[in-house]
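Hi Y.,

Following your request, here is the sequence exactly as I used it, all 184 residues.
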Amino acid sequence: MAFLSSLLVGSSFLLAAAIFLHHHNGASTTTTHLHFYMHDAYTGPTPTAMRVVSGWSLLDDGNDSTSPSSPRQFGDVVVLDNALTEGPDAGSARVGRAQGFAVRVSERGVVSDLSMHMVLEAGEHRGSSVTVKGRIDMDAGERESVVVGGTGRFRLARGYMVTKNYDYSLATGGVVEIDLYLQH
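Below is the corresponding structure, written out as tokens. Let me know if you'd prefer a different format.
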């Protein structure tokens, strides 16, 4: 019986030590705040965001003249490859690209399920990326998405992204302000 008690106490000690070392392994966590602007263009000679599937057209038999007039519909799939810049002006210094897709998931309002990779091309974070996933409600003043990971300096990143329209139209696109709060 004494052997079993000793084994149980020893096992408990080893388990506690393993948990402690896992959570306190001496590695420090860094917090980083990134701020930039995304330029989203649906029109013009070189659009950077494009609807590749129209949810309405999947239901349209070609004989219905009552198709909705909204530029975005439930079921739409939009792909994007947008510039990220330091400032809101298109001529501002470029820091990277926002690449991904959004699926319109609500029958009421413009709400999308967004999957986006922000690939950083300049400065101290050059070669790194951050991946976000989230529900984007275009009627909300601010929208929050979760950071699901990253590469390079942001490997194993976690955190959140806050976006808000800077100068934006659903019909043509525009500028979206982005704040990323990362722990890595």
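The chain is about 15% helix and 45% strand.

Thanks again,
Q.
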